[in-house]
Amino acid sequence: QPRVRLSTGPQQKHRTFYEFRTYCIRPDQNAAFLKLTNEKIHLRTAHSELIGYWSVEYGGLNQVFHIWKYDSYSQRAGVRASLAQDPSWISEYISKAIPMLMSQDNEVTYLVPWSRLQEPPQEGGVYELASFQMRPGGPAVWGDAFQAAVTSHDAPGHGKLVGAFHSECGRLNRVHALWWFQSADQRAEVRHKAHTDARVVAAVRNCVVHLDSQENKLLFPCSFSPLK
């Protein structure tokens, strides 16, 4: 029985993964960093695919969050090696950007088996990254409950799920739901509505028993972000 409790569930079938990156910017350099990145992001996207780039509005000050897609670890290693040899990237961007940062963090994630990356119904709006630290045991223990809780919100009149991810490198047993809303006010209305939706409440109650902690960030897409 203990072996069942420690199982992580089915192995990942696809090699494609998504690297989450969060940068904390010096408060006096936030505007300058965003301006520089807007002007020079093409030097980075020439090497690999950018999914989205956001400025954190609520849930963290002077931060940016971005997602990069890779087909394999070897592809990412090749990208990093190429960047290290790219004189334009080094001289025009990274040498100027690094002094503006206080810290950098990354996490390797996969899309959960029942989710696929989707574009929002329209450009504009705001995104929410909701992150959940689940109890040890993996998807074999809490996967079904997490899926039911997330999909209960992904319905007409609620938010639009862009993607659901689980961690592979970084903090383990961590899952994320990336949502899109028309505005911050619409998100607030949806949250109030969810509290009175018996279907949503029941699904969340079944999931929360597997939850250790949770946090969220409200994100505004940058002008150069593919996901807007």
UniProtKB/TrEMBL annotation:
Pfam families on file: NIPSNAP
Gene3D superfamilies registered for this protein in UniProt: 3.30.70.100
InterPro entries attached to this UniProt entry: Dimeric_a/b-barrel, NIPSNAP, NipSnap_domain
GO annotations of cellular component type: mitochondrion
Protein name: Nipsnap homolog 3A (C. elegans)
Organism: Cyclopterus lumpus
Homology family: Belongs to the NipSnap family.
GO biological process, one term: mitophagy
Superkingdom of the organism of origin: Eukaryota
Signal peptide: none
Domain NIPSNAP stretches: 18-116, 127-226
